[in-house]
Amino acid sequence: MPVATALTCARAVQVAENLPSAPRVLAELQGLLRDPNNGLDEVTELLLHDSGLTARIIRIANGVVYNKGEPVATLEEALGRVGFEEVYRLTGLASVTGLINFQLRYYGVSAKQLRENSVFVAVMMEEMAQFVSADPRISYTAGLLRSAGKIALDFTAQKDLRFVRPPDEPPANVLAWERDFFGPTNPEVAAALLRAWRMPTEVYVPIRDHYLQGLTVDPVPMAKQLNLAAGAAAAAGWGLMGEATYWLERREELLKEFSLDPEVFGRLVARATKRFEKTLAVLA
Prior knowledge:
Blueprint: H1 9-16, H2 22-34, H3 40-47, H4 51-61, H5 75-82, H6 87-99, H7 111-129, H8 136-144, H9 148-160, H10 174-181, H11 186-196, H12 201-209, H13 221-235, H14 244-248, H15 251-257, H16 262-283
Helix pairs in contact: 1-9, 1-11, 2-3, 2-6, 3-5, 4-5, 4-6, 6-8, 7-8, 7-13, 7-16, 8-12, 9-11, 11-12, 12-13
């Protein structure tokens, strides 16, 4: 039996309303960028509604990844520096650094570890997109928010289970551990939370199914893409405890399904690693 039957998906979503709102802004930005009539003025107007997100965007724009000269002081200058095509990546980085700002005590994962995993998976998803006929922006978003359910569950547990001691050891099998300890699993909670944040189905359905466990129908291709990307992060040393078996079980099968030669996949991992390493300074 779970330790706390109160930790339902609904309760986790309710408590997660107190988390930074940046992912909700990211959902709106995604819709805004789909319209070719919109430009930097419309994007700036949207982002200015969240002062915390604006501050993080300016800080990241002044970091080693985007800094090309004099420091920028305003959101307009930051967006002008990176350009329209890069604005979504910049906002995504700012969103994830704001959302993941506390230790996941029950999972035994630091904020730094979770941010690094999220960004590596996001970059890997984007690198894979053209090879698996996927939308690169949707791919990037799914990678960034893959662990949203863990954040919500741990945040809720820290509020509701204050007298229940976190486990001494990280979970060896994360989904089984979540069922025993919390009740709901992180992909279930992620889907409910991202739906509440008005993320499109193209984002939350792959996250819900990407462990490829207990499914009654064949998962959507992006769930399989996300499984491979998370496995690549783990193999590169940026994985999370309790997940390794989910990435190993079907790796060869998925590569064949996507007609991805292992050598080509290895080159994608190398490119993702290079991009990710440039971004590490932003995540500090």
